[in-house]
Amino acid sequence: MSEAVTRTVTTPPGLLASLDPLLREWLPRQRWFAGKGRPVTGFGLVAATELLPPTAKLGLYHLLVRAHQQVLPGHGAPEQPGDCYQLLIGVREALPPRLAPALIGHVTQGPLAGRTVYEALHDTRPADLLLEALRTQARIGGLRFERDPHREIRPGLVPRLVTAEQSNSSVVYGDTFILKLLRRVVPGINPDLELPLALARADCPRVPPPTAWMVADREPPAGASQPAEPYVLGVLQPFVQGATDGWELALRELAKGEDFVAEARALGRATAEVHTALARALPTVTLGHSQLRLMVDGMTERLEAAVHAVPALRPHASGLRSAFTALDDLAAEGRTWTAQRVHGDLHLGQCLRSPAGDWSLIDFEGEPARPLAERRMPQPTVRDVAGMLRSFDYAARSVDPAQPEWADRCRAAYCSGYAEAAGRDPRTDPVLLRAYETDKAVYEVLYEARHRPEWLPVPLTAVRRLAASGLT
Ligand SMILES: Nc1ncnc2c1ncn2[C@@H]1O[C@H](COP(=O)(O)OP(=O)(O)O)[C@@H](O)[C@H]1O
Ligand SMILES: O=P(O)(O)O[C@H]1O[C@H](CO)[C@@H](O[C@H]2O[C@H](CO)[C@@H](O)[C@H](O)[C@H]2O)[C@H](O)[C@H]1O
Residues of the chain whose pLDDT is less than 70? Predict the structure, then answer.
């Protein structure tokens, strides 16, 4: 494109070493830091791009940094490389008070000695720079900014950082677009871009279409014949103005003592519509016994790892395992299932209702802790249904006193709505549904133990129910 800007850049040697002591302290405190509970032992620089040279007023670096961490029992193999994180580091002589919450620290050594570094997404100029780069399809060093040529981006939209607790970080531009910057990044096709692009091509109105995206190219390893797969770093999509997410709405109705049945049914229909569009847009496969066995093995392995990490699971382990063996038994009898691309981490917080009452689904990244290849595998659609059923249970158990009947009504309405739009009711496959609900509840136990220990009783209550439901 004629308007594309290409800029080659260099970064000062010793940059990461100068930031090292500050990042060791700051990174583990971020909500999106995936390696909670394991001390950071050092960093490796994957890529550094100087977006603004550090003048007296402002400097800006885009960094991809690998965090090496101490390996504790139950947290993976010692030879695993550390996770790679995307950081946008601002550099100033001193921080104005409005940027105080963004402080990373004061640099005492190396090329930035004497400067203050901070999380630059809080700042207007760096956020402007990202939108402008996307708009103009810039190439800056190894960073490539792409956009759908059929979608307009107006210049000068005012940015604001989303302050909600997130697995990633998002900036809203003028209530028109939202840019999600992925924090823990892995090379390869990212479903958070791949699936919304496929759905946009399939004319599915339930998912905001990607308008632009940014990637980091990688040098191929010496002697390799194929180019190395890039890192997907961020996706810009239309902002659903005035939207409320399903979690907020559900809690609001619970607080008023109101039902959520009509919304749950609408959510079931919306989920089914997205599934139908995904099945049209991307390949579907049939799962026989050998594929089912692999899936069941995965569920069992995740259970064993979770039991190891969270001792409160131990008394329920054999009941939970029975949910997986029951599925394996069905497959051994010759039962098969259709699998397709799914959302992978569907819950009420991933559903947005517009002021007109329309539901959209967002965040197709899948469960961030799982390997990319696994997240991109075709799976039975019941997986997403199970995620939503768990979410109604979460909402009903997050209030005092808990409202399990409220959740039961929502769960039934959601499945009915799904059946209306998909032509098949997920409840007609109870063994598959129980296996997926169990897998999800186990994931949630681990997630809460790592990120929000005070929430642990919520999935543990479900674990008790699911473990007991297979016992005769
Ligand atoms: N297209 C959108 N329109 C309006 N709000 C959005 C949109 N996409 C995301 N959001 C808001 O941003 C939050 C985080 O987005 P999400 O994709 O779930 O990120 P994460 O992976 O970090 O959880 C959502 O809970 C929602 O409130
Ligand atoms: O950050 P993501 O939205 O991608 O998802 C992660 O965080 C979620 C919590 O914010 C977590 O969801 C769990 O808690 C929700 C209530 O806060 C509940 O509605 C979900 O059903 C429950 O799974 C999600 O599992 C995790 O991947």
Answer: 1-10, 56, 73-79, 470-472
Distance in Å, CA 287 to ligand 1 centroid: 32
pTM of the model: 0.93
Is the CB of 444 within 6 Å of ligand 2?
yes
- In angstroms, what is the span from residue 91 Cα to ligand 1's centroid? 28
- Ramachandran angles phi, psi of 440, nearest 5°: -70, -45
pLDDT tens string 151-186? 999 999 999 999 887 889 999 999 999 999 999 999
Whether 170 is in the pocket of ligand 2, judged by its Cβ within 6 Å, is: no
Cβ of 273 less than 6 Å from ligand 2? no
Count CB atoms within 10 A of the CB of residue 435.
Answer: 30
Q: How many CB atoms lie within 10 A of CB 224?
A: 9
Which residue in 133, 182, 140 sits closest to 48, CA to CA? Answer: 140
In the chain, the largest separation of any two C-alpha atoms, in whole Å, equals: 72
What span, in angstroms and rounded, lies between the C-alpha atoms of 168 and 180? 7
State the alpha helices, DSSP H only, in 142-244. 191-201
Q: Is 390 in the pocket of ligand 2 (CB under 6 A)?
A: yes
Of all protein residues, the one whose alpha carbon is nearest to atom 15 of ligand 1 is 363
Ligand 1, residue 240: give the atom nearest the CA.
Answer: 3
Residue pair 146/212 in contact (Cβ under 8 Å)? The answer is yes
